[in-house]
Amino acid sequence: MKIGLIGTGWIGEEHVKRLTGTISGAEVVAVSDIDAERAAAVAAIAGARVVDGAEKLVDDPEVEAVVVTSWGPAHAEQVLACIAAGKPVFCEKPLTTEAADGLRVIEAEQAHGKRLVQVGFMRRYDPGYRQMKAVLDAGGVGAPLMAHCVHRNPDSPESYHSDKPMVDTAVHEIDALRWLLGEEFTSAQVIVPRSTANRFPDLVDPQILLLETASGVRVDVEVFVNCRYGYDIQCEVVGETGTVRLPDPAAPLVRSGGRASYAVVQDFPSRFADAFDVELQAWVDSVRAGAPAGPSAWDGYAATVVTNAAVEARRTGAVVPIDLPERPAFYREGAP
Ligand SMILES: NC(=O)c1ccc[n+]([C@@H]2O[C@H](COP(=O)([O-])OP(=O)(O)OC[C@H]3O[C@@H](n4cnc5c(N)ncnc54)[C@H](O)[C@@H]3O)[C@@H](O)[C@H]2O)c1
Ligand SMILES: O[C@H]1[C@H](O)[C@@H](O)[C@H](O)[C@@H](O)[C@H]1O
């Protein structure tokens, strides 16, 4: 499958390396970025062409499928261009930063009549999250009542402002919990503790997101993106008869100097390397077999409706109701 990739930044480069060196059945033939130097450097990794402009890349006759790894606000128009061209597209999270744009994407895809979009919610491919899902689906802890989540990054750049903890970061937990619990969220509230001194001025950090699902499950998500000590992802679901907790990545326990310790992972590329590999291989395989089968444009849209409510909740201090329309039949299990 001949792939064109838009956005050759951090994760764009990671995915080009992955698609070139690890994933079978695919090759990156063209890349595009508003930063021509970045595009040329990343194109060289794959021996790909640089195409000047995202629209041109989508319409390039050699490109059979597209990977979108540009900035979040650019995703909507790029994914819509892929749908207009009838080309399958893997779009990194978030599908869109604004819910209204997500609605345009699901409407365009339904009008096309066949699934074309997959969203990069890679946690669904992480072995630990999959083990949790298997326990929950088997009723291993009874009916879920609560979930406690932690999403900590060691630091964040100056461009990372106060909406991003919800739009860019908690969006992972929002999708993972929708998937683990099998239901949608109905309200969001954001609590703001004292902020850390280790942050840029335009950022409120940490933030605590409180969500409620349709059946009354309560979920809390601590987002702390300047925690300094490492990249730490935690998740525990509490049910009527037990709890299930996301395992930490396996690491050797070292006993030395009077202490027993193990290292904490430092960044997301290492924490989720296996999940990214499995995710992209599954995307390539499913597209070659006819249509993408992973997280859909509906999942991307539903998550953005929640992040937008969470941003409003932080700004107003209110409990914000989440007004998600009914899931269209097109996006139900077994639909095209
Ligand atoms: N799944 C994950 O865990 C994960 C991890 C990191 C990033 N991401 C997502 O991937 C996306 C990119 O993140 P990043 O960390 O690589 O950011 P980045 O800033 O390193 O890279 C973004 C690139 O997109 C380019 N770009 C911006 N607008 C463009 C446009 N209109 N057309 C073409 N190129 C454009 C920029 O020049 C830059 O090179 C974001 O949506 C982010 O949320 C996901
Ligand atoms: O784009 C990144 C990425 O999604 C990481 O997985 C997350 O931990 C960061 O907070 C976010 O900025």
From TrEMBL:
It catalyses: myo-inositol + NAD(+) = scyllo-inosose + NADH + H(+). Involved in the oxidation of myo-inositol (MI) to 2-keto-myo-inositol (2KMI or 2-inosose). It holds the Pfam family GFO_IDH_MocA. Belongs to the Gfo/Idh/MocA family. This is Inositol 2-dehydrogenase. Residues 135-321 form the Gfo/Idh/MocA-like oxidoreductase C-terminal domain. One of its GO terms (molecular function) is nucleotide binding. Its EC number is 1.1.1.18. Keywords: NAD, Oxidoreductase. GO terms for biological process: inositol catabolic process. Residues 1-121 form the Gfo/Idh/MocA-like oxidoreductase N-terminal domain. Gene3D superfamilies: Dihydrodipicolinate Reductase, domain 2, NAD(P)-binding Rossmann-like Domain. Homotetramer. It is an enzyme of class 1 (oxidoreductase).
